[in-house]
Amino acid sequence: MTGVPARAGAPTRQAADPGAHADVDAGAHVNADRGAHVSADVSAGGRPWSGVRPGRRIRLLNSGVSARVAWVLRALSVLVPLAAWQALSASGLVNPTFLPSPAAVWAAGNAMAASGDLWSDLAASLGRIGLGFALAVLISVPLGFTMGALPWAQALLEPMIGLLRYLPASAFIPLLIIWLGIGEASKVALLVLGVVFFNTLMTADVVRQVPRRLLEVSATLGAGRLRVASRVVFPYALPGMIDAMRVNAAAAWNFVVVAELIAATSGLGYRITRAQRFLQTDRIFAILVLIGLIGLAIDVLLRLLRTRIGRWAG
Amino acid sequence: MTLRLENLGKEFAAGRPVLADLDVTIASGEFVCVVGASGSGKSTLLSLIAGLIPPTTGRILLDGEEVTGPGPERGLVFQTASLYPWRSVARNVAFGLEALRLPRARRQERVGRLLEEVGLAHLAGALPGRLSGGQQQRVAIARALACSPRVLLLDEPFGALDVQTKEDMQLFIRQVWQDVPTTVIMVTHDVEEAVFLGRRVLVLSCDPGRIARDLAVDLPAERALTEKRSPEFLAMRAEVEDLVRAEHRAHQARV
Ligand SMILES: Nc1ncnc2c1ncn2[C@@H]1O[C@H](COP(=O)(O)OP(=O)(O)OP(=O)(O)O)[C@@H](O)[C@H]1O
Ligand SMILES: [Mg+2]
């Protein structure tokens, strides 16, 4: 069902040429075909498209892949880099202090897990993203919703938020430490700062996508502004708002680790700086893998949520 | 119900009226079709009556009361259904009733009856995305009817449908109009449709839109599809088509 019938050429030519897929003789075939038609074209008043190869199957750009193939490709996307890593470290070309082998990384991870350090650090990092991201969502969703729904709020807020968005949150770390110390507050604040402006603007964009017709029809059905906001705009925009959150959750997770790298006494970022001090690259790698896996898990969870809520938009 | 347009006019840009000097009275139970070339302001007229945009001059009176904003007593249906895609068919129809704070049992009973009327009872639980274009328009009409509108405003409701579905829908809307006590104002650029459905046809001129002609259709009230081939029908249709074409020509000549 993915093939689209070729529109070029007369139907008779298409039918008469079932072997057009064989690319080996395609060149000769096209030439012969064209040669045969040149004279005919002239006498027939010219058919400019007659040189198109008959029976060529045109496939949609986004034609699907089967579930089986998709899973094989997914496996490859993990296994190929892993194999390359293994090969590189086994070849002895790179000093193992710089690039430890997968086995060494696995062992280092296990050792950290056994000592319990890894879990307390993971808990610390997860606690920070949980609190910080929740705060960022609580601020940005109402703000973005208001901006998207009310033009005056948009005019009032967009210039400032658009500007703040371009200030790199990491550059605020020194200020945050001066203001809030090196405790939890400064880390959560960095995360909120790094996420809140983007999520506000993205939420506003999604809210503006609600078709005007839908708003008009709702008004003629007796729904006031509050009712339209809660019963029409919000459900319509919800899947898109979750998408925005998913994108920004990745940024949030980054900011947690960054904050912990600079000043912290716990967390995965802190554990990396500790390992750096003792040149334990195997530990650094193990923590990086864990960070990646957690990020992936957050992404998958939000994706599932979005699929559940946005089934109608599917 | 009486709908009065008094000296109604609308300009989006100053000095360039889209509609001007509309004086029309529409009585209870009428089925009025509005035809006119593209850009003559048909949709603008419906938006004005719906209360979605304010008039520049004149006013609209519904039973003597000036229209100042949208409300459930004036139901509106667009060419594309504009349904709530996350709500089931039944809950789409129920939307207006929820705002009216009707008790749940009464609401469900009313939704059930409307779905019967539009022939979609078997699809009550389906999401709009699953429905055909004609079915979606039926839902949109049922949703507007749920609020018992005094006047139902239809903006090219069948314009996006294929010929067969369109004819089904024409018979359908005629039936609805006979079953439900409501006045219908329907915009279309299909003259045949206008003459077939309307008891009265308003022809809009272009630039600015004025009432070029206000025609009563004196064909039998009960019109079957075969009526479209009767000489009286064809004559009437030709008359309206000529009017629309003349207005269009005049407009082309001016620009
Ligand atoms: N919101 C608006 N702002 C500015 N101009 C508008 C607006 N809405 C409509 N117009 C203009 O008013 C004129 C009439 O538009 P309208 O949509 O009412 O025409 P119509 O008769 O419904 O046309 P069609 O048959 O193509 O639907 C057009 O020239 C259009 O550009
Ligand atoms: Mg229109």
What do you see in this structure?
The complex is a heterodimer of chains A (314) and B (255). Chain A has 12 helices and 2 strands; from the N terminus they run βααβαααααααααα. Chain A is an all-alpha fold. Chain A has a two-stranded antiparallel ribbon. The radius of gyration of chain A is 29 Å and the shape is flat. Chain B is of the alpha/beta class and 255 residues long. Chain B has a 6-stranded mixed beta sheet with strand order 6-7-8-3-9-10, sandwiched between helices. In chain B, strand 9 and strand 10 (211-216) form a beta hairpin. The termini of chain B are far apart. The relative contact order of chain B is 0.18. Chain A binds chain B through residues 211, 213-214, 216-224, 227, 231-232, 235-236, 312-313, and chain B through 47, 50-52, 69-72, 74-76, 78, 80, 82, 84-86, 95-96, 98-100, 127, 129, 140, 143-144, 146-147. Bound molecules: adenosine-5'-triphosphate (ATP) and magnesium ion. Magnesium ion binds at residues 42-43, 155 of chain B.
Brief descriptors of the model:
A: 314 residues; mainly alpha; MetI-like fold; 73% helix; disordered N terminus; B: 255 residues; alpha/beta; Rossmann fold; six-stranded mixed sheet; 7 helices; 24% strand; binds adenosine-5'-triphosphate
